[in-house]
Amino acid sequence: MRVTPLLALTLVACTEPPIAHGPAPGEKASRADAVRTGQVVDAISRAPIAGAEVQVAGTLRRATTDEDGRFEILVPGGFGRLEAASPGYLAGSATTDTLALWPAETTEADAHAVLDQRELGRMARDADDLDDPDLTPLARELIEARRRAPGLTDAQLLPRRPVLKGALELPATVRVYRRGAENDSCRGRVDVIPLEEYVRGVVPHEWIPSWHLESLKAGAVAARTYAANWVLNGGKYDCADVDDTARSQVYADDRNARADDAVRATACEVVVRDGAMINAEYSAENSDPTEFGVSEPLCSGRARNGHGRGMCQWGTQRWADQRGQTYRWMVEHYYPGGGVGNGCADPRPDVQLRQRLARVDAEACIDPQASYDCADFVRQGWSVDIFDLYAGRRFELAIELTNSGGAASPDGTLLKLALPASLSATGVQVGGQAAGVALGGAGATVEVPVPAIQPGGMARVAFTLRGEGSSLPVGAPVPVRTWIARMGAFYDKPDWGGAARANDGQTFNGGDLKVLAEFDVYARDAWTFDAADPTLVEGWEGVDRGALRAPGGVLQVPAGGAVSPFTHIDADRLTRVEADGLAGRLYWRHADEGFDAQRSVRVDGEADLAGLPGWRGEIQQVRFEPDAAGGLDRLAFRPAAGPGPEPDAAPPPPPRDASVETDPPTPPPPTRRDAGEDPHDPLPDLDDAGTGATPVPPLPPGARGVRGETTSGCQAGGQAPGGALFGVLLLALPLLRRRRRA
Hints:
The chain is of the alpha+beta class. It has ten helices and 41 strands.
């Protein structure tokens, strides 16, 4: 029989394990989670990038790439875009499993190689464009006319051509023909993509993402105009407005943060001449003068690389970097008689979401360096950003809403937060001020109206949440789901798991304005440890920080001893210890202490702890030093007498007014120590007489501890008869039973 530990509230919000997560009772999962494996590479050299941070967009799940740039990450249902970042590179994202990051600085030789390769494809395809069987008759006529007179507008070239929309009205979407291997017919997939999302997928694949921001803005305006103009002309192909190759302009599902900034900064802006959008062509190097007769002194003496019409990509970088010119100047320069116009009759907001976590109640931390300030009690470098909190203590989940669109978001935009049964909201603040909203109890859905957010502005909604009961019977982390349910006429999404019923211009998470955080909630009591369960070995280490194993269900303890993961042993109630398989000395310490002989006891089968110096309050870590190396079957802490609590039974929350914050007791801060004395790392090698000490340095950030498959296993606790239940309920020297993932 196995009894699940009744632990602290564990917030598993940033790193998750490769197992399926089930919904909380009464909740329905939108889609199954999936383990994704992939690689982060340099966009130019394709070399793997080690140590890159990968995150599931819209969640707090993270992973770090290994030396080959590879990663494994659990992607929850309803999410699919992965984001990656690494020092020296521009942040990027993709829906595929290969994320290519652009160097933050690109050499001129590398940039030339990239653009030259694109132009080779563009020129080869331009040459036989008229033979493309999928071109519409109007598109074929326009292409021929543009080549004869590249400086004229389409309206001048074909004054009687049909126009499907107003001459300066941007379309909402673009039909993109995703060419297959055949590359010569409309048999490929056609995606209908919001225009701004489409431009975000073009700019990093047509321009060099590390170039000057003004250069990228010029590229965004040209790319937007090129696509919108084909939509207004009824589409370039029978099946689509444009394709995703250099025949039109290169589009891919990858995104680049710097290019995104350029696209958002130029939202709705297009190249206009005589009140209409033009065919905004561009190529790599247009020489001097360009095909449009534009004087280009910064390109003088350089060979043409491209068709020479319209905007010069290298020129935009040179004018921005060498002469400080803006993208508006460049548009006027490269398209004579033209300029930047706004193609949106009614600019829209574009709200993005971000979530952050912070403690509300202080936590005495036994080993800040190795446990990331007690964000991770098990001390494993790959679980950075995980918070461990006691049941009854509080944390803050802050949702930041930023508006990157061209208009203010409507006043009263409705933000919803759905809690599992094991969490409740004790307070909500909007912009630092208490919000007068109904909080409800555990499992409630909280609705918060958000004031208007101006373009470029941000609103912060901070929820103070508290654990109210164990989530262990669920067998998986429980979700906290936050989403925008309504935004005036721009967005309507009543349910977190359902598709938006209306969306006019919102792009976050592919147009689904939702975020997900996940939590393990533990009742605050005792732990179990039995080496026969291999999952309980997680977090145990030798005094040299080496990993320990448990072959055959026996923990192999070296002669120097074994150190437990961080524990929460109630020393005032648990006053006996039992050891099966080994005899030796047990040491313990609080958050502000090291191990020493004054806080130890010899255990040969069992020992009484009551009244021993230092056996008081909450013990946060123990060390067992055997008489000789061997196998430890079990180590248990028990009360002296009297029945224990039911397994996984959460202490009832104190009565409270839902509108008033309550402050659970806060532990005292760690004791100050003299400079140079490390209160966290001493793991002395002590004999029974208490002499000698061999300090062991703390686990460095990024180092890996023992990791095992982790499960809840708490259901068995309720099956024990009364006497047997009492006998095993308070087994300690635990192991945090986490659902973690590298």
